[in-house]
Amino acid sequence: MTSLLALLATRHEPWDTLGELWHPIWLLWWTVIGVPIHAVLSAILGLFSGNAIAESIGPFGIAIVLLTILIKLVISPIFQYQLTTSRRVQAEQRRIAPQLAAVRKKYKKDPQRLNQETMALYKEHNINPLAQMSGCLPALIQSPILIALFYVIRDAHKTLPIHDFKFLGISLDHTALQPGQFVALAILLPLLAGLTTFVQTKMMTPPGGQAAQDPTQAAMTQNMTMIMPVFIGFISLQFAAALALYWVVSNLFSIGQQYFITGWGSLSPPRLGRGKAA
Asked: What is the DSSP letter of 276?
């Protein structure tokens, strides 16, 4: 811990770039998020030190997986609140979908009146259109965690009790395309990061859910469903594989939690026996 604090004291990038004003904010963020992440990783690595099975798999990867599960357990109430709120708003929008369609048809040539009548309809049925913004909560919370994890991984050679960062043949302290990396295997993590992001995004939209949205909102939902997984996969290629591992495990945890709350959403898998004669 002393070495970590010493490294923190000599860290200059953020406030050299953003100014001394950000120094206290950075220090608070690092103390609240970065130091606990480092402490948990260090404790888990110490727990698996000398364990033959862990050494064969990769203790650093196991530590990242366990850290991710711990973080998800801590923030799961927020994610559950977001899912419940989103599901309620989507159900309300489906309920008034015919009335919304009628309003859009009636005032399609008058955007200002269309907006007024739409908001009046929301108010009549006690629907808060901004409640959908709760979907941003998990991403907002995970952003500072990811940044802190990035710095912990970057300085792991100096501050963590480990020298081998391999996990199932993947060097977690390297990017997927970095020299010395087993690219054919390491590329799986960015692919899984994009795929699990796509699955989770589709699950958040109920079957036929876009029909209850206005055309602009439906188009944005469709675009985000396709663009976000590609963006996450691309970003995962640019940073250490440990961050992609964190994202994959985090998504898998969220997918499981989401399934028990909202089901498969618009990603309903085909049923066995479908197509047979009744």
From this structure: -
CB-based burial label for 278 (10 Å; 0-12, 13-18, 19+): exposed
Whole-angstrom distance, CA of residue 113 vs CA of residue 104: 10
Q: Are 222 and 47 in contact (CB under 8 A)?
A: no
Query: What whole-number distance in Å separates Cα of residue 247 and Cα of residue 124?
Result: 41
Cα–Cα distance between 19 and 22 in angstroms, integer? 6
What are the boundaries of each domain within the chain? 2-262
Q: Give the pLDDT confidence score for residue 195 in this predicted structure.
A: 92
DSSP H helical segments within 155-187, as ranges? 156-159, 183-186
Amino acid at 174: H
| 274 C-beta neighbours (distance < 10 Å), count | 6
What is the per-residue pLDDT across 106-145, written as a single tens digit (0 to 9) for each?
Answer: 777 777 877 887 788 777 777 766 655 555 666 677 788 8
**3-state class of 166 per DSSP?**
strand
The angle subtended at Cα 195 by Cα 130 and Cα 183, nearest 5°, is: 135
